[in-house]
Amino acid sequence: MTQTAKRIAIIGAGPGGLAVARAFLANTNFELVLYERKSQVGGVWYYPKEDEEQRTDSAMYDVLETNLSKEIMQFSGFPFPNNVPTFPSRSQVQDYLVDYYQNFVQGQERATVHLNCAVKLLEKIGDSWHLHASGQKPEVFDFVIVANGHFDVPYIPTNLPGYKEWVRTDPKSQLHSKHYNTCTKFRGKRVIVVGNGSSGTDIANQISSVAQQVFHSVKDMSKARKDSNPVITPVPVISQLAINNNRTVTLQNGTTLPKIDYVIWATGYMYSVPFLHSYKDQLFGSQHSEMPVTRLWNLWRQVVFTKDPTLAFSLLCKNVVPFPLAEAQACLMTKVFSCEVEVPPTDGLAGDMAAGKDYHSLVTPRDIEYCRELQGILDSHNGTKDRLQPVRWDNEMAALRYDTAALKAERNKTLVHRAMQLRDRHEDYSLE
């Protein structure tokens, strides 16, 4: 008598969900069903300019290129095309993800893909997961992998003094970087961009091509931009907003910036799994069981839920190289769901990181160490015999991780020069 294959629901067909599908199709005999709420695979990288609703709901913007070189970004054994530059554009990454999907997932007998299909309800009943999605009949699964990303729900410090009054008075002058698409409306304006991450730095530079003045608010002034952009002024953290006649922003050092037309919050994102109706307290914290949250709890190796190892998460980590990491995490999931690796009831990895919103942040070299820890688990459980081998973080790969930051710093100098050229020509920001 043939044993029925185990079934897995994969929620999200971005880089994480696609990597999970490839790993399980290559290394197991499980049956997969992928649910993607957008009309195409690619997750956050899908940015259809012809579809305003899906475009404005994206963390992408019109003119965007990666901060990681294509050599370090690529999935295992699947390089970017030779004609793609070192730092691919947004659309080139999307094309790469579609190619990946077509090569490893699309048309596979054990994989069903539902596009334009949002998961509405997911709960554990008995030994099975029950999933309800738009336009589909309810289905039952043995395992669930949540790969819905963490670039969907913006974080804004709404408790900042004066913020709520400013938003009530002029809501369109306060926006999160998620809702930035192009620099056009900032022409001749005084703008403050809050946040020194990649998006904040990039958006500040783009706006400098048209704005009267750009202030760039950062937590650590020692890490403020040191490029030669004369339009951008680094400033400390904001302490207060005042929507008065002068539209004033007050900084922590007491300095006031008058006549601010726009505040752009490049302050990151929250985690949200609104469809999950089981294990709320254990996953999201007993004091914060309602979404969104700044971190998830009770995860083994930031992947598998320790209280019920039939539930796993892809790419919760931040400040990492996501594509190769997604495959490594997916290979670990195959071992857990196949009962080759036992998940301990508590996460020994957490240790001193057990508290705080930065638990998922793995700034180099922590990201390298984490990837090597995952590889060590795989190797000790016959991972070297699997069909899909994730990228190994050997010395060459680690060197690429460090080199890509230096390469991007040089690239940013070119982008600043480009912004100033366009400013002199009175043109909106674009890439050559």
UniProtKB/TrEMBL annotation:
The alphabetical list of record keywords is: FAD, Flavoprotein, NADP, Oxidoreductase
Q: Which Pfam families match?
A: FMO-like
User: What sections of the sequence does the record tag as coiled-coil?
Assistant: none
Q: Which organism is it from?
A: Lachancea nothofagi CBS 11611
**Cross-referenced InterPro entries:** FAD/NAD-bd_sf, Flavin_mOase, Flavin_mOase-like, FMO-like
GO molecular function term, any single one: NADP binding
Family stated for the protein in its record? Belongs to the FMO family.
Q: What is this protein called?
A: LANO_0C08196g1_1
